[in-house]
Amino acid sequence: MAENGEHNSFSGENLQAFDFKGNAADKARTGGWLRAALILGIELCERLTTLGIAVNLVTYLVNTMHLPSAQSANIVTNFLGTSFILSLFGGFLADTFLGRYLTIAIFATIQSLGLGILIVFTALPQLTPPPCSPNGHCKEPSGLQLFIFYLSLYLIALGTGGLKSSISGFGSDQFDENDQKERSQMNNFFNRFFFCISIGSLLAVTVLVYIEDNVGRSWGYGICASCMVVAIGIFLGGTKKYRFKKPTGSPLTQIAQVCVAAWRNRKLNLPADVGQLYEDDKACLSHKRIPHTDQFRCLDRAATVDLSVEESCYASPWKLCTVSKVEEVKQIIRMMPIWATTIMFWTIYAQMVTFSVAQASHMERGIGNFEIPSGSLTVFFVGAILVTIALYDRIIMSLARRWTGHQQGFTALQRIGFGLALSCLAMVAAAVTESKRLRVARAHGLLDKPNSIVPISVFVLIPQFVLVGAGEAFIYAGQLDFFIRESPEGMKTMSTGLFLSTLSLGFFLSSLLVSIVNLVTTSNSHPGWLTNNLNRGRLNNFYWLVALMSLLNFIIYLMFSKWYTYKDTRMVGHLNMQLTESKPTKAAEKEYMQETRDS
C-alpha cells in the first residue's frame, strides 16, 4: 500500500503494473487520477456506515434492545475492534491470494449484505423486544433476535476490515512513482482520501444520526446501503481502466520463517564473526543489504549455517534465512514498545462513542425548538481533528521547524506523545464534567429517575470531545509516519496493519476494562460504577481510572521513545563505524553515503 511506503512503479525492482487482461499497463489508457477517484466513493461509504452505526448504537441498544449500558458499550467497542483487526486478515488475502481489486469488490459486497440484514432487523418490530411496560419492566431480546443482530453487525465488520486493508493501496497503484507528474497526483490522492474520510465522518455524525433518531434507523441504514451499492457499481465500472499489481506475499510469512528457522537452529553456536551469517548475494543485487545489529542475537540463529549439513538441505527459507530478513524482523521487534504504548489512546477514543454519548442523552440538548441528537456531539470531535490539522499545517509546523530543525516540525514520536498527553487531559475533563452532572442530578432529586434529563447543558461535554479530537490529529499522523518510515523496506505492507491493530486492541481493551470494572464494583447493595441509571452510577470514577492508566502509559511511552533510535540514525551510525574501520577513499565514502540516502 502506498501509505505504507511501498514502491508502486513500473520498472527496476518495483512491481510491474498490468491491465485487466494481464498485459503490461498502458499509462496513457490506464490508471491516473480519474481512475483513482472511482475508488474513493467506497471509502466515503465505508466511513459513513461504520461511524454512522457506532456513534449512535449505544442509545439504540439501551433504549430499544433493553440491554445494560456496560454490555451495550462493549458491543460497540467489540464491533469497532473487530472491524480494525480484520484489516490484517483482509491485507493477508490481498497480499497473498486475491489482490487488492478483488478484495475490495468482495468485501464491499459483504458489507452491503450485512447492511441489508441490519435494515430488515431494525424495520421489523418482530425482531426487537416489545417496549417497556408502564411499571418499568423491560424485556431483553431473545437469542434469535441477538443472533440476527450480531450476524448483521459482524458481516459489516468483516466488510469494513477487508476494505480498510486495500482501498488506499489500490488507489496508489494507479500512479507511477517514477513519473514526477504522477507522483504529485498520488500525493493529491491521499489528500483526497483523507478528505473523503472526513466528509464521511461529518455526514455520519450529523445527517445520518439525525435521520436515525427522528425518521427511523432502517431509513438511515438504507441510505448507507444505497450509497454503497452505487459506489460498488462505479468502482466496477472502471475495471477496464485500472492498473493492477500481482500479490507478492504477506510479510507475516517472513516473520514466521525467521522464528521457525531460529527455533530449528537453536542448538547451533552463533559464529564469532557475523560475516559468516548467511546472506543471498544474488537477492542483494535487487534489494538493499541490511547491516547486522547486535540486538536480539537469538534470532541470528535463523541465519546460522550448519556446516555439517549439505547446502541442499537449506533450500527452504523455513530452515535458513538471510541476515537481511532477520534484521527486518528485528526492526519490527524494536517498534513493538512504541506500538504497545499507543493502544491506550484508542481505549480513550472508545469512550467518546460510548459513555460520552450516553452522558449526552441525559443532558439538555435543545437549541430553541431543535434538539441535538446525542450521537451528533461527536461533530465537535471530528471538527477538532480538521481544525488541528489545518493549524498544524499552516502555523504549528513552521514554528516548530524553527525550534526543532525537523522538516515536519515535530518528529513522529513527538507527535504521538502530544496525542497521548491530550487524551489524558480529555479523561480528566470528562471526569470533572461527569462529577458536575451528578451533583446537579443529586440537587434536583433525579438519582432514582434513570430516564430523566439533568438540567445541565450538553455543551459542557465539548472539552473532552475537542481534546480527544486534537489528540487524534497528532497521534494518527504520528503513528502513520512512524510505522511507514520505520518499517523495513521488505515489509512495508505491514505498516498499516500495525497501525490499525492499535485501534483494534484499544477498543478491545476498553471492552475488557468495562467488564472488569462492572464486575468489581457491582454488588447486591451497590449498583456499580457503570449501571444503567447513570445518575446512580459513578461514571466519573471510571473516567478517573482511565485517566490514571493513561498517565502511567504516557510515562512508559516517554521512556521507550527516549530509548528508541530511528532507523536512519542507526544506518548513519553503522556507516560511520565502517568508514572508521576501513578508511576508504573520499570517492568511495561519497558513493556509499549516496547509496544509503537512496535506500
Q: How are the elements arranged and paired?
A:
Elements (H helix, E strand, L loop, with lengths): L32 H22 L2 H7 L5 H30 L1 H24 L19 H22 L2 H6 L7 H35 L2 H21 L13 H14 L58 H19 L1 H10 L2 H7 L1 E2 L1 E2 L2 E2 L6 H27 L7 H32 L10 E4 L4 H25 L7 H28 L17 H25 L3 H16 L3 H13 L1
Parallel strand pairs: 1-4
Antiparallel strand pairs: 2-3
Helix pairs in contact: 1-5, 1-7, 1-8, 2-3, 3-4, 3-5, 3-16, 4-5, 4-8, 7-8, 7-13, 11-14, 11-15, 11-16, 13-15, 14-15, 14-17, 15-16, 18-19
Keywords summarizing the entry:
599 residues; mainly alpha; Growth Hormone, Chain: A; 4 domains; two-stranded parallel sheet; two-stranded antiparallel ribbon; 19 helices; disordered C terminus
Overview of the molecule:
Mean pLDDT is 82; it is low at 1-14 and 595-599. This protein has 19 helices and 4 strands. The protein has helices at residues 33-54, 57-63, 69-98, 100-123, 143-164, 167-172, 180-214, 217-237, 251-264, 323-341, 343-352, 355-361, 378-404, 412-443, 462-486, 494-521, 539-563, 567-582, 586-598, and strands at residues 363-364, 366-367, 370-371, 454-457. The protein folds into 4 domains: 1-247, MFS general substrate transporter like domains (Growth Hormone, Chain: A, Up-down Bundle), CATH 1.20.1250; 250-334, no CATH class; 342-564, Up-down Bundle (Growth Hormone, Chain: A), CATH 1.20.1250; 572-599, no CATH class. The chain has a two-stranded parallel ribbon with strand order 1-4. It has a two-stranded antiparallel sheet with strand order 2-3. Strand 2 and strand 3 form a beta hairpin. The chain is mainly alpha-helical.
